[in-house]
Amino acid sequence: MHLSLLFGCLSLGLLAFFPSLTVASTFEPPNLTSSGLGLLSLLIFIIAYSLVIAEEKLHLRKSKPVIVAAGIMWVCVALAYHQLGLTEQVAVILDHNLLEFGKLMLFLLAAMTFINTMDERKVFAALRSWLVAKGLSLYWIFWITGLLAFFISPVADNLTTALLMAAVLIAVAADRPNYIAMGCINIVVAANAGGAWSPFGDITTLMVWQAGIVEFSQFFALLVPSLVNWFVPALIMSFFLDKGHPVATTERVKIKQGGLVVVVLFILTIAMAVIFHSQFHLPPVLGMMTGLGVLKVYGWYLKQQQSNPTNPDEEEPVGRFDIFNQLQRAEWDTLMFFYGVILCVGALGAFGYLALVSEVLYSVNPTVANVIIGLLSAVIDNIPVMFAVLTMQPDMSLGQWLLVTLTAGVGGSLLSIGSAAGVALMGQARGYYTFASHLKWSWAVALGYALSILAHLWINAELL
Q: pLDDT by residue (tens digit) across 365-397?
């Protein structure tokens, strides 16, 4: 499993984390959208984000253009505000952005370290080998990988889940390219849909929760609409599947010492983050970092056990495990990308662009606007899109906030490039799962998208 891909794509959903990320709540940014410096900043952002989209072609890490763009754009903000006599306000806005980025980075760093540790302890490899060894038909593997993706992604995030389930498909059907392509589409849709009804399933839901707009338990109202979003295209594709059996395998992977304990610690850490936020009104990042501290203490224990093994047949070399190795394996390009995009979008907010978009987009009908947000996330990705929505703070009901959370989370499934899971699987299943193979079934995914919205409007009508 390639963990740099795992967190690399995850990046495009994170920016909606905080509702007031771009400007201090007591300050209304001036409308400088038609100014020379404002237009220059917008152009710089478009160029930088175009380079991000072309990362696979250019082999230019996504963090590099946005970090450079952020610095230039904030110089433009400083010059524009100086002309208006608002020089001191620039530091206030920028400090606010940096503070929220710090919270976001630490939260993700803790989550990444847990996932890396579980991967190193072979938790994911053991699950994959267990599924492969069951001898199920290809038809049932299609449904089981989709179902597992839907219910694992709310905890393990949609990218991790997609990579794990795709590894199962490739292991059992490497000689069946059409089956793997359809299976990958199923997994991408299921992982994105599963992530939409949990604060931990996707970066966008995480941001909405941390912003305090939707409470932890209220996300569960999206369970049925999310299930519809996955089940409809899966059912359609199932009629066209290869229904044979894969080649039998006897592969067995054993979880390393402490692997299951790490899984339990991760679940407890998630619970701690929820309790810190709901009961003590503390930032969830504090609960995550506390759990990371516990993991590091347990890592010390594992290291001591390996340095003084009681079992002479211990498979691992003495002293091999080191929790700081898992910290180092965090996807720093992703974390730096968040820094760049948060500051870039913050600069656009300082020029008044987000207020302008909010006025145009949400002035007619919030339902239509939120559906459009989901369609945009298939192309632009849900990170900057959702972040912009949270920054604009449109006056919406809880039901509408849940709707935009749903559409931003599952809208990326419409195209293979629209979500972290899709981009990651194009790399992992290269030659099997492509933009064109996904586009072939986009109509079925779009039908699921439309029906999931209708399901939300019907089931959660009292919240709208």
A: 899 999 998 998 887 667 667 777 887 778 899
Which token pair is 175?
């000689």
DSSP state of 417: G
How far is 78 from 87, CA to CA, in rounded Å?
Answer: 7
The H or E element spanning position 196 is none
Per-residue DSSP letters for 276-321?
Answer: HHHTS---HHHHHHHHHHHHHHHHHHHHHHHHS-S-TT--SPTT--
Q: What is the DSSP string of 105-144?
A: HHHHHHHHHHHHHHHHTTHHHHHHHHHHTT---HHHHHHH
State both tokens at 395.
């006056």
Give burial (CB, 10 Å; 0-12/13-18/19+) of 304.
Answer: exposed
What pTM does this model have?
A: 0.69
Closest CA to 200 of 257, 161, 238, 247: 161
The contacts of residue 397 (CB under 8 Å, 6+ apart) are 463, 464
Span 168-208, pLDDT tens digits = 888 778 788 899 999 999 999 999 999 899 887 777 887 88
CB atoms within 10 A of CB 434: 17
User: What is the Cβ-side half-sphere exposure of residue 285, based on CA atoms within 13 angstroms?
Assistant: 17
Cα(109)–Cα(106) distance, integer angstroms: 5
> H or E element: which one contains 200?
none
**Length of the chain measured in residues:** 464
Retrieve residue 9's tokens: 């794509």
Token pair belonging to 248: 């039998």
